[in-house]
Structures are given as C-alpha cells and as structure tokens.
Specification:
Blueprint: H1 4-11, H2 16-60, H3 66-80, H4 83-86, E1 95-101, E2 106-108, E3 116-123, E4 131-132, E5 143-144, E6 146-155, H5 158-161, E7 163-166, E8 170-172, E9 177-178, E10 183-186, E11 190-192, E12 197-198, E13 203-206, H6 209-212, E14 213-214, H7 219-222, H8 226-229, E15 230-232, H9 243-249, E16 269-272, E17 284-289, E18 295-298, E19 303-311, E20 314-317, E21 322-330, E22 343-347, E23 352-353, E24 365-369, E25 372-375, E26 380-388, E27 392-394, E28 401-408, E29 412-414, E30 419-420, E31 435-438
Parallel strand pairs: 7-10, 7-28, 8-11, 8-29, 9-12, 9-30, 10-13, 11-14, 13-15, 16-17, 17-19, 18-20, 19-21, 20-22, 21-23, 21-24, 22-25, 23-26, 24-26, 25-27, 26-28, 27-29
Antiparallel strand pairs: 1-2, 1-3, 3-6, 4-5, 6-31
Helix pairs in contact: 2-3
C-alpha cells in the first residue's frame, strides 16, 4: 500500500502540459527553421546565380585574353558578393574557358579558339563560407552548401552571317527572292511591295511586326512565304558604332583585324586621290589622303586583289571592275543636316565582287563607310560584308547575291529582281564586334 505522500504525487496533475508544450515547441522550431533557414538558402542561391551570370558575362567580353577574363570574373564576383559578409564565392579554378557545344551543353576547355566562359560560385564548406543555419541547429543541421553556375558565350547572330540588318527601315521593292537561311531585319520596321518570295528558313524580323510591317493590302498573299518568315526580334547592328575605330585599325599593320592576305611587316603606303591603280602593290595597305569632297576613282575594268584601301575621299568603283580579297573604307561625310546620307562609296554597273566559290573562306570583299553606300544594277556579289553609318542602296542583281552581310546605321533599300541567300555559310571573312549571351 502506497504511503500518503506518494499517492498525492501520483494523483497530482499539475505540470502535465509541460511535456506537450516541449513537444509542440520542438515542432514549431522545426517548422520555423524550415521556413527561415530554407528561405535563407534559396536567397543565397539566387544571389550566387546573379553573381555567376555577371561574372561570366564580364569574363567572356575579354576573350581571347584568358588571364584578363579570369581576373574580371573574380572582380565582378567580389563586387556582387563581397568577401565580407559572404566569404570568397569564386576562386580562379572555378572559372573555366573553352568552346561551348550547344548540342551537348558541354565546354571543351582544350579548344584553340574559345568562345565561352563557365563560372561556378559557391557558399559552401569547400570555400569555407557555407550558409549558416539558425533554427535547424536544433535538429542537427548547422549549415547549407549552396552553389550556382553560369556559362556566357560570344557569338555572331545568324542574321549577321547572311542577312540585311538596318537600324532604320528595310525597304523592299517587288520581285525579290529570299532563299536558304537569309535574314532581313529592320529595327524600325520592314516595308515591301508585292511579288517577293520567302523560302522556308528565311526570316523577316522587327521588334513589333504588328505595327512595323508595311505591306500592300494583299501583301500577306502576294508575297509568298511571308507569314511563315515573320519574327518578332530586336537586333542592333553594333558594328555601325565602331566604324571609326575599324577604319583607324585598318591603317595599323599590327592590328588584329588586318586580313591574312596583307604583309604586316610592310608600312602603310600613303598616296593622294590621283593614285594610279595600275601600279598598286598586292599585300599592302593604302591610305589615300585628299581634300574634302575629292573623289578616288577605281577605273573601269580594273582588277584589285589582296589590298586594303582606306581613304578620306569619296570612293567610286568603275564599271566592270573586279575585286577579291579587298577592303574598301571611307571616312568622308556629306554636308547639310544629314551628313550620313552622302554615298561616299559607290559602285557602277556590272562590277564583280568576290570569288564565286559558294562562300568558301577567302576571296570576299569588306566595305566600311562612315556615311552611305550605293550599288548600281547588274553586279555580281560573292561574299561581301558592308557596314555603313548611313544608308545602303542595293541595286538589282543580274547574277544574284551569293553571300552578303549588311549592317546599316540608317535604312537599307532593295530594288527589283534580286535573289538573296544563294550560297551556303553566308558571307566569309567577317569582321565583327561581340554579341554575348548566357547559354546556361
């Protein structure tokens, strides 16, 4: 028989809720920990991803200088997530440089010509900066290991390989044909007449097709293939912003953009507008200096190859001239309210540009104009790049256009009876400025 004190103790119900209270306390701490600490982990993951994106994009801009690319990646990571309070979220060994394979989502770090940078940022034990847990310590979880990864790639938009890109409007007359992967893009719109055809694979783009496409009333049916070719896109012709720099660099034999057919051990040859093209030397750079509004005339039937000609003059190319492996550039501007309207490089009828080799490497022609470029009808075009601060006027072609890349700071106009996109691979020998994107 139990004694009276023990009986009273067993019968006493005071404090019975303490056990339940402790159980509920642990449960509430666990729920709070899941809410607070998990949210903190996701917040850190978001910050790490933004930092990886910024670091990868900052690094890829500096390719092919790999050392500078790594330094910039580390700098941007440190600026986005400083070592205090986040620790070192990026180490040099976590910046990988290589060639991106979009088909397999892999980076070839052994490639000779890298085009991408992979960055992995961490708050983890490996970096001695894990994300601390607070409430979840009660169940034994003291820290989170969090990381993020990004890959940035330098690329040439497909529209710049074989296409017409205008910062203004592209004006297409009638009876033009576009085949293969030809691209037409107007940042301020595209307008066209009837009877233009667009093969499957061709794109016609602008930021807002619903308001920026100007066509006749029956234009969707009178221009076969147009509905399937239309795209909404934003694409700025960035090389237009760098024409001045390009023309200066082309007068420097040590510049990396000097074509391979030029003998860079030789100095620039300086001549005036009376230069006789019958005596030009292949493999050389010519700087033609002249007074304002003077004209440099490439005579009719002339044949130019393996030469760079940069001039302060307006340049005119005579009828039936032939050019291959040639760079033409003019810094001349017009007078009046629109100095870019001046056609400072113009081509007469029946000029033959480039080698008819289905856009194989080499043999092409590059044209850089601080103002506008004009082409007369019946020209042969094989692998031509045109960058103009103003307009580009493309006359009718008797032989079709076999590879052309045009970037215009203003408008591009096409007359009738052209056929575009007739070779595979687009215009060769492109000088290009960087376009960058995150691919992972």
């Amino acid at each position: 028989m139990l004694c009276a004190p023990m009986s009273r103790f067993l019968a006493d119900q005071r404090g019975g809720g303490t056990i339940m209270g402790l159980l509920w306390f642990m449960l509430l701490v666990g729920i709070t920990g899941m809410a607070v600490d998990t949210t903190n982990g996701f917040r850190s993951r978001t910050m790490l991803q933004a930092t990886a994106d910024a670091a990868a994009l900052a690094a890829v801009i500096d390719l092919p200088d790999q050392a500078l690319a790594v330094d910039n990646a580390l700098r941007y990571a440190g600026e986005n997530m400083p070592s205090y309070p986040y620790g070192d979220v990026l180490y040099a060994e976590d910046v990988l440089i290589g060639l991106w394979d979009a088909a397999t989502n892999t980076l070839d770090t052994t490639a000779a010509l890298p085009d991408a940078v992979m960055v992995t940022t961490r708050q983890a034990g490996a970096n001695e900066n894990p994300v601390p847990a607070n409430f979840l310590r009660i169940v034994g979880l003291t820290e989170w290991n969090v990381q993020a990864q990004a890959v940035a790639q330098r690329f040439v938009p497909e529209c710049l390989k074989d296409g017409l890109v205008a910062r203004g409007v592209i004006d297409i007359s009638s009876n033009n044909g576009f085949v293969n992967s030809m691209c037409v893009h107007g940042q301020q719109g595209v307008q066209m007449q009837n009877n233009n055809s667009y093969q499957s694979g061709v794109t016609v783009s602008m930021p807002d097709p619903s308001s920026q496409l100007v066509i006749p009333a029956a234009g969707m049916t009178s221009n076969p293939g147009l509905p399937g070719a239309l795209r909404e896109n934003i694409l700025d012709p960035r090389m237009v912003n760098h024409i001045g720099e390009i023309l200066v660099d082309l007068l420097n034999p040590a510049s990396p953009i000097i074509p391979a057919y030029i003998d860079t051990s030789q100095p620039v040859i300086v001549v005036d507008s009376n230069f006789n093209f019958n005596t030009y030397l292949q493999g050389r750079i010519y700087h033609v200096v002249c007074n304002p509004n003077k004209q440099l005339k490439v005579p009719a039937n002339a044949s130019l190859t393996n030469v760079v000609i940069i001039s302060d003059c307006n340049i005119s190319v005579g009828a039936k001239a032939y050019l291959s492996n040639v760079v033409l550039g003019s810094t001349a501007l017009g007078n009046g309210v629109n100095p870019l309207a001046k056609a400072n490089i113009s081509f007469s009828a029946n000029v033959d540009l480039g080698v008819a080799d289905n856009c194989a490497p080499g043999g092409g022609v590059q044209i850089f104009s601080a103002a506008s470029v004009h082409f007369s009808p019946s020209m042969t075009v094989n692998g031509v790049q045109i960058v103009a601060g103003g307009d580009v006027d493309l006359g009718a072609r008797g032989q079709g256009v076999n590879g052309i890349s045009v970037q215009a700071g203003q408008d591009i106009s096409l007359t009738s009876n052209n056929m575009f996109g007739l070779c595979s691979g687009g215009a060769p020998n492109l000088f290009t400025v960087g376009y960058y994107r995150l691919v992972l």
